[in-house]
Design brief:
about 375 residues, alpha/beta, 10-stranded mixed β-sheet
C-alpha cells in the first residue's frame, strides 16, 4: 500500500459509524506517563484515547508530559541516568527512527501488538507504508503550513497563496513566525531560492546547500519571531503580532474554526509528516504490560477515526478513513479541513524523515549557531 493511497483515503468524505468493540487485553491498573505536544493535539488524544480507555480501566491514572519536542534529548538523558520515567512517547517519524537506531525505543511487531482492521485486514497491511521504522506506531498524517491574518492583507493585494510569499517582505510586510529548528525552514528556503522540489534533499545534503538555505532565510531574519511550541504561532496571530507564521495545520484549524479568529490558511508547499508512538526500551514488565494494553486500544481503527473528530489530522490507518465524520462539538464535516483533502493538497512537499534522521544533529548544530549570530 502506497502512502498516496492513505493520503487519498483520508480526504474522503466520512460517514458516521457505530463504535467498535475493543478486542484488547486485560483490565489495567497503575500510573501511566504519556508524552505528547500539549494544546489541541493532546486534547484530541485525551478525548479519543485516554478518556474512553479510562472508562474501561478506572484504576489507571494518566499523567501527561508535554515534552515531545525534546523527546530524543530527554530519553538519551534518562538512559544515561538509568531512570526511565516515561511509559509511552508521541514523536514525529524522524525522531522515532533516531531513537530506534540508538536502542532507546522498543522494536514492534505490528501484527502481534496492534489490532487488525474490522474486516480482518492485518495491522501491517492497514498501516502499510506508514510503518516507516521498526519502532514506530503511526497515528496521524499532519502538515506544517502557514496561517496569516486576513485583516492585515494589504489593500489591493491577493491573500498569500504561494510559499515564497513568506519571503516577500515588499508585497506582504510585517513580522513572520518560523520554528526555531532547521526542519521545513531549510526546505522552504531552497524552494524559494530556485531549487526544484525533487532536488531539495540532494542539495540540502551538501554544505553548500545548507549555506544557500541559511542565506535565503537571512533575507527575512530581521522580520522573524522564532517559535518553540505549536501554540506559539496561533497566539501570535491572534494577538496581531505577526502577519504570517508556520505551525501545524491542526493548530490553525482550532484557531480558525473553533475560536473564529481572523486567520486564513495558506496550504501551498505544506509539509506532510507522520506522528505516532514509540515505546521506550527497557520498561519494567508491569509497566510494559500497561503500555501494550493501551496501545492496542488506542491505535485501533475506530480510535484513530475518533481523533479526527477533534482535530484536522488524517488517521494513519486506511480502514479509519471512511469513519471520519463530523467535528464532535461543532458538527462540521472534517474531511475538507484535512491536509490530505484534494483542494488543500495541490502542491505538497513530502517530508523526508530518513534524511532528517541521518542529518538532524549536524544541521541542527549549524542552524542553532546561525540563530545565535
Amino acid at each position: 500500500m502506497k502512502l498516496s493511497k492513505i493520503l487519498l483515503a483520508t480526504s474522503a468524505v466520512g460517514v458516521a459509524a457505530a463504535g467498535l468493540a475493543y478486542a484488547g487485553g486485560h483490565m489495567a491498573t497503575g500510573s501511566f506517563t504519556l508524552v505528547s505536544w500539549g494544546g489541541a493535539y493532546q486534547a484530541s488524544q485525551t478525548n479519543a484515547y485516554t478518556n474512553p480507555y479510562s472508562a474501561n480501566n478506572p484504576d489507571v491514572e494518566f499523567v501527561w508530559d508535554e515534552s515531545s519536542a525534546e523527546a530524543v534529548a530527554k530519553l538519551r538523558a534518562m538512559n544515561e541516568a538509568g531512570n526511565l520515567t516515561w511509559d509511552l512517547v508521541d514523536v514525529v517519524a524522524s525522531d522515532a527512527l533516531r531513537l530506534c537506531d540508538e536502542g532507546l525505543a522498543m522494536e514492534i511487531d505490528a501484527d502481534e501488538m496492534l489490532a487488525p482492521a474490522p474486516d480482518g485486514t492485518s495491522a501491517s497491511d492497514d498501516f502499510g507504508d506508514l510503518l516507516v521504522g521498526d519502532c514506530f506506531i503511526p497515528q496521524i498524517v499532519y502538515s506544517t503550513t502557514f496561517g496569516y491574518r486576513t485583516d492585515m492583507v494589504p489593500d489591493g493585494v491577493e491573500p498569500p497563496n504561494d510559499i515564497c510569499d513568506v519571503f516577500d517582505l515588499e508585497t506582504y510586510p510585517g513580522m513572520r513566525s518560523l520554528e526555531s529548528r532547521p526542519i521545513n525552514n531549510m526546505e522552504w528556503a531552497l524552494l524559494c531560492d530556485g531549487v526544484a522540489k525533487a532536488d531539495v534533499y540532494d542539495v540540502l545534503a551538501t554544505d553548500e546547500g545548507q549555506e544557500q538555505a541559511l542565506a535565503k532565510l537571512d533575507t527575512i531574519r530581521d522580520s522573524v519571531i522564532w517559535w518553540n511550541a505549536g501554540a506559539d504561532t496561533p497566539q501570535l496571530l491572534a494577538d496581531g503580532e505577526i502577519f504570517i507564521g508556520s505551525t501545524y495545520n491542526g493548530r490553525l484549524f482550532s484557531a480558525i474554526v473553533e475560536q473564529n479568529q481572523p486567520i486564513g490558511m495558506m496550504w501551498d508547499a505544506q509539509v506532510f509528516d507522520l506522528d505516532g508512538w514509540i515505546i521506550p526500551a527497557g520498561l519494567p514488565e508491569d509497566r510494559l504490560a500497561r503500555v501494550m494494553d493501551f496501545v492496542y486500544f488506542a491505535t485501533d481503527t475506530q480510535r484513530l477515526a475518533d481523533q479526527a473528530a477533534y482535530i484536522s489530522y488524517g488517521p494513519a490507518r486506511l480502514s479509519s478513513a471512511p469513519l471520519v465524520g463530523n467535528h464532535a462539538e461543532l458538527g462540521i464535516e472534517m474531511a475538507p479541513h484535512m491536509p490530505t483533502d484534494p483542494n488543500n493538497a495541490q502542491n505538497t512537499f513530502l517530508y523526508n524523515y530518513e534524511f532528517w534522521a541521518d542529518y538532524r544533529d549536524d544541521i541542527d548544530a549549524k542552524f542553532q549557531a546561525w540563530l545565535a549570530q
